[in-house]
Each structure stands twice: as structure tokens, then as C-alpha cells.
Amino acid sequence: MRNLIEYPDREAMMLDLADLIASELAETLLHEDRATLSVPGGTTPGPIFDVLSEQALDWDRISVVLNDERWVGEDSPRSNTALLKQRFLISRAAAATLVPLYAPVPTPEEALDELSLGLKPHLPISVLLLGMGADMHTASLFPGADNLALALGNQAPPLVAMRADGAGEPRITLSAPVLKGALRTHIVITGPEKRAAIERAAHLSPDKAPVRAVLAQATVHWAD
Ligand SMILES: O=C(O)[C@H](O)[C@@H](O)[C@H](O)[C@H](O)COP(=O)(O)O
Q: What InterPro entries has UniProt attached to this entry (predicted)?
């Protein structure tokens, strides 16, 4: 795979990637008033957050938005917002602006308008970091999800509610046009199963392998 960087181990990858993201944000802030960073939740990015939160950046000029959120309150261990607050938006990064992808209403549909309005001023994304599942989903663009075709379309709204077998609870996700509009894109994956999955995705269409929607513009970072 042409755009894949292979690292000797996970720790080295997380450190390098955090440094790279920090330098891309700093570069953006040289010629823009503000920068927007979008990050995944899930289990992979924690060590990147640990390093990034200590970086000396103009955090008060940086907006942070999740790629996607599970529709659960912040008291749930499944809440990506809670993960960000506990592990990223602390220390120096506490000065960043969190753009919410969750509101305490029963379904994501009920919050879509309000959250989309809040998101729009922070677009386009300056630096996009994505994770990926072994099923080739990225953000909450899951194969077989109810609103996948809508979210992949060129005219998709910025945020889409999503339900899928592999997703657990209902989700809200940035749509493909928002992801594709990012100025710099990185995908971080670990282990042999995800490595095989991303190689496979390169030969599939986005409706089968949603990560494919951003693959051409992304640098993939992999460690075993
Ligand atoms: O909320 C989420 O679930 C994520 O944003 C999602 O897209 C994630 O990046 C992948 O599912 C990989 O998750 P892991 O890193 O936990 O394998």
C-alpha cells in the first residue's frame, strides 16, 4: 500500500503521530486564526491524546471535534466525549474548544440540527485523525448501516445519525463530505487484522468498505 507508514512498535507510532499532528496544527495556525482537529474515540487513540495534551500549542485557537459519538451519556464507559475530557482536553489542551457531538436527548435525530449548527463554524477540518474497525468502518460509517448511503453522498449533511449491527448503540457521525473536506488526513490502525482489512478496502467501494471514502487522501499509520 502506497500511503502506509509502518512503525517498529505501537509506542513509537503514537509518539510520532502526536508530534506530527501537533506540527500540522502549529503550521495551520501560522496562516489561519483557528484550526480544527477531529479525532476518533474507541480504544486506539488514548496514547496519542496523552502526548498531544502536553504539547505547547495555541490551544485556545484550536477546536476539537470527535469523528463520531455513541449515543450514551458521559457517565458511560462507551462515551467518546468522556474519553476526550478525561484524556485529551486536560493539561495544556484544556484550553481547546470542544465542539459537542452529543446532547442529552433520547435519540441523535433530536439533536442533529443543533449539533450541526454548532459544528459548521469549525469546518473545514484542518487535521483529521481517524481510526478504523476490522469491518472497515471509519468514524461511524459502518458497512450495512441504515444511513450509510446518505452519509457517503456528495450532498450529505455534515452530521448523520447511524444505526448498524456492529455499532452497539445509535451513533452520530461526521459525513463523508466533511471527512473528505479535511486538509490533512491520517488513519491510525494496529495489528494484523486491521492491516489486512485496510489493504482489502483499497479494492472495494465505499458502500462495502466505508474507509475507502477517505483512503486516497489519507496517510495510514500502522504498527503490529
Ligand atoms: O467511536 C468509535 O468507535 C470510533 O470513532 C470508531 O470509528 C473507531 O475509531 C473504530 O471503531 C476503531 O475502534 P478501536 O480503536 O476501538 O478499535
A: 6-phosphogluconolactonase_DevB, 6PGL, Glc/Gal-6P_isomerase, NagB/RpiA_transferase-like
